[in-house]
């Protein structure tokens, strides 16, 4: 069964905003899917739905993912915690035993190239490095599905490009499944073999593009 399966879903917020209309979308194991569309078309709503943080008002949805990693723009690091302590957060909340937690943290930091920065505080890091910390934190919980909410939006172009390359390599190597939202068509096309184009209010998926992979 799919990690995310939406069939003809609708979502109207309690205040009456009709955010999604007749959206169908599937993410299977090992698939990395991007959703691209302008601001306000319902991308974040779609992602929050995938994480179980919103409820559909019509249609059918199933979620086969047991552990979800949610990667936002850099704002979610705790400023008073070091890199190590920020990455430790998920394991602490889940009650992962100390030894196992430390092993996972070290492995995740190594994966994102932050070994040696354990004692740094977020303000000492560049935006790209904070993004890596956020990704490392998700990696420690070994998710079946990663949700990315415009993680590169605040980054400069060079950093964005470099992180994009690393992310595609990592996901290709580990066969991680991901749902990535962005308003950048080039970013979506670079990162994924399947790009869903959303537009309108209420938002609807208006096109699906298969990108020859690896791109270009
Ligand atoms: P996007 O991520 O593409 O910018 P959103 O999913 O954030 O779009 O928003 C889609 C629509 O739903 C917008 O009109 C937005 O104002 C509205 N919206 C988003 N979140 C809420 C909310 N919690 N309550 C009411 N309306 C919301
Ligand atoms: P305590 O567990 O009492 O805080 P420790 O000296 O064991 O004392 O750890 C201090 C902090 O450093 C903890 O938040 C811990 O998670 C973190 N830490 C543990 N191992 C490492 C490591 N190899 N590199 C960086 N930080 C670490």
| Cα-based radius of gyration, to the nearest Å | 17 Å
Major sheet: size, sense and barrel closure?
6 strands, mixed
Label the overall shape: globular
| Extended strand count | 9
Task: Kindly report the oligomeric state of this protein.
Answer: single chain
Give the spatial strand order of the biggest sheet.
Answer: 5-6-7-3-8-9
GO molecular function: ATP binding; ATP hydrolysis activity
Protein name: ATP-binding cassette domain-containing protein
Domain ABC transporter: 4-216
Keywords: ATP-binding, Nucleotide-binding, Transport
Question: What does this entry look like structurally?
Answer:
The protein is of the alpha/beta class. Helix content is 33%, strand content 27%. The chain contains six helices and nine strands. The chain has helices at 43-50, 83-94, 98-111, 127-139, 157-174, 185-191, and strands at residues 4-12, 18-27, 32-36, 58-63, 68-71, 145-149, 177-182, 194-199, 204-210. It has a six-stranded mixed sheet, sandwiched between helices. Strands 2-1-4 form a three-stranded antiparallel sheet, covered by helices on one side. The model has no long low-confidence stretch (mean pLDDT 92). The structure holds adenosine-5'-diphosphate (ADP) (2 copies). One adenosine-5'-diphosphate (ADP) binds next to helix 1.
